[in-house]
Amino acid sequence: MISEVLPDFRYLDSNKEYVMVKSNTLPSGQTRIDNMEICGITKRFPGVLANDHIDFDVKSGEVHALLGENGAGKSTLMKILYGIYHPDEGEIFINQKPVTINSPMDAIKSGIGMIHQHFMLVQTLTVAENVALGLLSSRGLLTDLDRVSKRIIELADIYNLKIDPDAYIWQLSVGQQQRVEIIKALYRGAALLILDEPTAVLTPQEVEELFAIMRQMVKDGYALIFISHKLHEVIEISNRVTVLRNGKRISTHLTSETTKEDLARWMVGHDIEFITSHEKSNVGEVLLKLENVSCNSDNGRHGLSDVSLEIHSGEILGIAGVSGNCQLELAETITGMRKTTGGHIYLGPDEITGLAPGELTERMLSYIPEERMRDGVIRNFSVAENMILREHHKSPYSRSGFLRLKDISAHTDELIEQFQVKTPSQATLAKNLSGGNIQKLVLAREISRNPRAIIAAQPTRGLDIGASEYVRAQLLEQRKAGAAIMLISEDLDEIFALSDRIAVIYEGKIMDVLTCEEATRERVGLLMAGVHPKKKASA
Amino acid sequence: MISDLFSTTVIIGIISSGIRLATPYLYASLGETFSQRSGVLNLGVEGQMLMGAFAAFYVALKFGSLWGGVLAAILVGAVFGLAMAFVSNNLHAAQGISGIGFYLFGLGMSNLLFQKMIGTVETVQGFPKIYIPFLSDIPGIGEIFFSHNILVYIAFFLVPVAWFVLNKTTLGLKIRAVGENPDAADSLGVSVIRVRYFTVIFGGVMSALGGASLSIALLNVFQQNMTSGLGFIAVALVYFGGWRPWGILGGALLFSMVNSLQLWIQVLGIPIPSEIALMMPYILTILVLVVSTSKVRGPSALSKPFERGD
Amino acid sequence: MKKPYVVLIGLLVLSLMFSSCATAATEEPAAAAEAAQVEEAAEEAEVAPMEEAAEPFRVAVVMPSAINDVAFSQSMYEALLFVQEKMGGADAFDFVYSENMFVVDDAAAAIRDYATQGYDLVIAHGSQYGSSLQEIAPDFPDTSFAWGTTVDTFGIPNIFAYEAASQEGGYVNGVIAASLSTSKKIGVIGPIETGDAKLYVDGFKVGAEATDPAIEVSVNWTGSFSDVALASEAATTHIANGADVLTGSAQMVVGAIGKAQESDVLWFGTQANQTSLAPSIVVASQVYHWEGVLQEMIGLINAGTLGGQSFTLTLANGGEVIEFNPDYALPDDVKALADSTVQGIIDGTITITLPAAE
């Protein structure tokens, strides 16, 4: 059925016209994979049917997007294709011939390359060393890095990638590291590339550059599988799209014949109302204020420097930035978990610089931490115990050091109900809840106190669409109630959807603070990359 | 009296005895460097040294063959390394604790075998000093550098070899990658487990050779617990040397020379309490560690067992 | 519980078995047999009080190093063997020991175990065990304990104390050493500046300096009883500094003796006879004979006195003996001087004034 969707050996050009690919040799010298077909793949994990008889295929000259929520089974499917997992049932065909893929080595030999979401690069090695790793050397036991470097430059030239083979990985930006991953796959003769959430860590400009490379590769005859949960990207880049839900294939369509709403419905199983815009709320006095705040970071590189921000009552200030630009440091500094090296922080009229987290709790500052499993809950505590973590020492939850279990239980029941936490019981350990429900638990604890200020760090990362929209709605609810909210997120869509103003952070500095009207994707994207649009214009 | 320290005899004495004292450290630390660079923390070095020392001594004593003793140490070290590799790679045991287990096992086992198979303290004729022609005749220099036994020369020769293997060979590249990011190495078809088996077995062999260098080359006796914490210093020297062979050479020599300096301070009767003199090498080690660790980072995957998939 | 932990625990148990299990003194090699004997001993303990006359006198010893260390522990082991033979074998005198108990906590546990098993006398052979004994002894008022080297019984009625006046043998060794040295430089290697080793080293120094005021005795403490490598390098250092006579205390000196032999430098031993280690260069050894003290204690215990007294080994009471190496050709005049020194100490005509403690 799927193979009828497109005839063989052509790609869709920008005018949506089919063009024949002439040679069956790719620019990297590798023979094309005309088509790859996965038939009836089933994979069971204890208690979970991760893949349930899934069919999927990809052809030379197309981007086939694989769409689904966390846990829908896309990663499992791709790990099977790449030989990391072994399927319980099903077959894989390349160019109509059945193949067995037992390890990444087999996948590489079959011409399959994978760009992992978390880059598979050794930070302390150079680009050339990373590429050469695991390959036979022309000099036997000795490395042949000069030859490898030469070939890297050749491959990089095809797609204009500009990579210095002698640079250490840790010296490269995230976007450059991704290119190294692509080169690495091409070097190994990949004709089919799996790109697992490749845009998650990129700035909008870097996403555009990646898409340009992908388009060129498709034109050259590569087969690309693009995994994402960002609908607009899927619509922008893919030729076909397959949606998975709960381990099953829900649909496969030409992208041009679907809409964002269709895709979302297939993903979630019911209609979703997207929070696209929000009413203006009544912005009040300044509640949270940072004045020239600086701090050190863990890795010995730049920490926060001279950060000044103001958040008003009833306002959401979005902090946009590429991962690893001191977002964590910012949140930890405000919430008292990290020492400042300079500057002042105020909550309302009172200075709170250097106060301990317990002290800040008293002053009604709430924190929704980025690492919810590490900082948000105690994994081996029950739901009820986690619910009262912040106020366990206070009436009515305890008296003279003794916990009052009845009151705790009543309070927990109320919150479970109110915040729709799906848990078998109050006594269930936090670690046994799903990511979405853990986040709801954290929200319930942090928000139910009606805090004056909320620091929300990556509040929807890793959550499914339903849970994400719920969390966002709750934040808007708090904004309406007059809280000052700092929303730290690497998801630009989220920033744009919720924020009243957007501050962009780069290497620990605030590049600029823009109002909703000023903030365009392009402008924010440039700031995220550390480029000041105004300066550029004047240069 | 302090001026006595600057006489030629004393300076030659300090350096040449520093070189001898550094020898067992070099073997053990270079071996440990390989296993740590691949991500395995082996705290059983001391036990492996004792077993190697015993095996070499036993063969030398009973069969009269020094090279047979070296071979015996290599075999025993390999067996111990294999066991450590199995425990850390296949059973995913906590490496710190299992290393201590192997240390205690080696300590007890070498003692038991000593009691049952030899019984009393005996001495052997160890490897003789080799005077390198012409070079050993140079005054001072000759005594310091060219009048040692073969195991001392081999230890120092292994430093550039280890550097070369780590940095210039495909094996070295795999070792470094596996210790930094085993998932990445695995995704490129490098067998993380195989690399770690190799390095841990190699580490065991090197530790055992370090032990053998004591029992059949430098001291020519075996006694229970004769290494007396040397294996743990060797592990510390790996950190001290920043996981690099040349750094380890520097660390081992510095530590050993300060140790021989303190021996001279006592022998010359310089009025420093012996307790203070004895502390000198350790104080120095701590100081260097404090200064250097802020700059050098160890292998990221050190002591983390590898399991495919997540 | 996961597999790794099982393996780990298995390893730990094995290693503990090897390193510190109680080893029976009789000549049974197999570990299984030893274990059986310990069990047997425990059973015997229950019936012991009733049939005391028919039961052997039972002694347990905890020692810091091995029974064949050619030093401190070996001297006690040999004394126990001697007493056993003298009293008519294992039927009359039975003893067990735990060696290599360099961890004081392990030693304390062993001491308590032995006391629980009803041994007649439990010996803690090491001054580091004192405070443990002080705690344990009052819990077992019917068991006799002994410890050394010290004179302190803590005023507890079931503790004996014993020590060796090792400065006496040290003095004699020092006299001979000074007479034989031509370079007038003598090197001493000690473990930790305390107890028996300090007495020996101080006595040696006094003896050497009394014989030849120009003699230079330099002392090197290694900070450890077991660091063979450092002791050996200390010997090398002494030799490089011109010493032609060396001595040293504790079990780690085996390495140093090797270095002395290599460089053909003379050696004086203490605690046990060290001639066998280097027959060509060992001149004499001060040897401890604990058997006298042991027999005296046994007599007292059988008579109902469980402690409260302290004993000192001296040249005069035969607890210390200077044993000469028959293979070393000691000049007659030096031998005569040595003998007269021994006699002088026994008579009291020679008194050894040790330097005051700092």
Automatic annotation (TrEMBL), chain A:
> Which keywords does UniProt give here?
ATP-binding, Cell membrane, Membrane, Nucleotide-binding, Repeat, Translocase, Transport
GO MF assignments: ATP binding; ATP hydrolysis activity
Name the domain of life: Bacteria
Q: How is this protein situated with respect to the membrane?
A: Peripheral membrane protein
Q: Which residues form the ABC transporter domain?
A: 36-271, 288-532
Q: Which CDD domains does the protein's record reference? A: ABC_Carb_Monos_I, ABC_Carb_Monos_II
| Protein's cellular compartments | Cell membrane
Q: Which GO terms describe its cellular component?
A: plasma membrane
SUPFAM superfamilies listed in its UniProt record: P-loop containing nucleoside triphosphate hydrolases
Instruction: Determine if Zinc is one of this entry's keywords.
Output: no
Q: What is this protein called?
A: Nucleoside ABC transporter ATP-binding protein
Which organism was this protein described from?
A: Pelolinea submarina
Q: Please name the taxonomic classification of the source.
A: Bacteria, Bacillati, Chloroflexota, Anaerolineae, Anaerolineales
From TrEMBL, chain B:
Q: Where in the cell is it found?
A: Cell membrane
Q: Which UniProt keywords apply?
A: Cell membrane, Membrane, Transmembrane, Transmembrane helix
Q: Which InterPro entries match?
A: ABC_transp_permease
Topology in the lipid bilayer is annotated as: Multi-pass membrane protein
Which positions, given as ranges, span the membrane? 6-28, 40-60, 66-88, 100-118, 144-166, 197-219, 276-294
Concerning CDD domains, the annotation shows: TM_PBP1_transp_TpRbsC_like
Q: Domain of life of the organism in this record?
A: Bacteria
Specify where it is mainly localized.
membrane
Protein name (Swiss-Prot/TrEMBL)? Nucleoside ABC transporter membrane protein
GO annotations of cellular component type: plasma membrane
One GO MF term: transmembrane transporter activity
Automatic annotation (TrEMBL), chain C:
A Pfam family it matches: Bmp
Q: Where is the ABC transporter substrate-binding protein PnrA-like domain?
A: 58-342
Q: Record's CDD domains?
A: PBP1_BmpA_Med_PnrA-like
GO CC terms for this protein? plasma membrane
Give start-end of the signal peptide. 1-24
| Keyword annotations from UniProtKB, A to Z | Signal
Protein's UniProt keywords contain Signal: yes
Reply yes or no: does the keyword Signal apply: yes
InterPro entries named among the record's database cross-references:
ABC-Purine-Binding (IPR052910), PnrA-like (IPR003760)
Q: What is this protein called?
A: Nucleoside-binding protein
- Source organism per entry reads Pelolinea submarina
